[in-house]
Amino acid sequence: MNHDAKDDQKRYDQLIGFLTEEERLGVAAVGDKLIEDAGGLDDLADYKVMVAYGGGKDSTYVVAFVRAVQLHLQLTHDRTFLMRVANMRHAGVVGAVMENIDRVYSALGLLDDDRAELLTIDHTEIRPFRVDLPLPDKLVAINRLDVLMNGHRSAGDGRPTFCNSCNLAVADFYGRAAWWRGGVDAIMTGDSRREQALYAAWILRLAKGIGIDVQRKGMTFQDLLAALRGVGDAYFRELFGDDQHEPAEREVAVGDRSVQPTFVSIYDLVSYRVHDHWDLIVDFLGFRFDDLAFSFTESDCANPTLMAHLRGLRVEYVEGRTYAAGITEYLEFAETMMRRKEMPDRLIDLALARYASPDKIAERRAVAAAYAESAFGLEEDALVAMVFSPFTDQGARLADFVERRHPERVAELPALHAALRGEPGNDSAGWLAEVSGLSISHLRTLYGSSLVDFASGDTVMARVRAGDPHKSEVHTVDARSGLPALELISGR
Q1: Which of 136, 138, 115 is nearest to 44 (CA)?
Q2: CA distances (Å), 326 to each of 244, 314, 476, in order?
Q3: Max alpha carbon distance in the chain (Å)?
Q4: Which of 60, 364, 369, 380 is the most buried (most CB within 10 A)?
């Protein structure tokens, strides 16, 4: 056994030293609940509890809390549960996130403890955690394609471009992590019961709204994943048209175990504000708010940096104002979101200070461009094409895009349309693929699709954003009149 009582006692004492009296009582209460749920002390050693670990500040606290419960039971009863910690990755999870996770695991003594099962889940690939585990090329290719296809349908709006496919991938991750190798008995979460109920209700409304038959009474976790699989199927069919391969690759896993994991919420037992746990998270667990990994409301994903970048590119190239004006608008949005999430002032100031002068905005632009290329293999041409959305609606904005960005190709416009319609014997397809980062078949799918009208709600993408709280109005300028206006944008 890779643990001893002295090490456990020392680590437990260190951990609870950072917790309030209320939280210490919470550790004991959760421990008692797990003993009861396991069927008594005799069955506790075979009881498996899962924590989904994104690598951000909030889930770091949950991992630490569950470890405290595990050690408390071991020290009190000389037996404890098995702890599965699963971290999901995608192209937006940079190396600094894995380094944070590694430091947290090390501080908690999880790396070489046989009572812990540490997994990294890269879509369908499940492997033991290792800090330097490379991202699979296949996963990066899926993420890249989803960003491009979603971005072209939404003119680069933040949440649809980066989060819709990712949120469905999170559901898939839960299905795979919770049922892997016999599954788990419980899933420990920091979400309140109210948050869980609201999320479930939103999923069911969304599923029903797009014609999926769902049973509302007696919903299990597996039923909820099945509803999300239905939503995902409809979403990706809308995105990829007749191409059945892409939706099948992204199908949400729903598990195959008759016993359903129970959800145990620690929300009512703890404080979630990071400044209440700053010493624990930063000093003891070694969490660092890295330049890329910490982007606005996120501390485990660099994609919000690209959301701001796309807003800057859109305002500069599509609207003819300045990149800095677009960034200013995104910062207004981001500050609203950060305050809504009750983030500490020091983190809000850190996030906004990175854009505090023209030189810093230029520096962040270079950082975002380098990240887009390293994470997704996308150069600025492809990002600018995305915010123009020139291919949707039978290429309604193609002439505008070509005239402004590639005037040397204006004479080729009829040939470009012909290539997008699928007419044979056309040499323009190669350039279209090069400038957009998409294959000609995906460009033709976009050509036959519409730019999503978020006000109408007649597409799955519009329905998803309508129920998404991560959006807010920002002060901007009306492109036609030049007068001050408000615009609803989304992001993180």
Answers
A1: 115
A2: 37, 7, 8
A3: 79
A4: 60
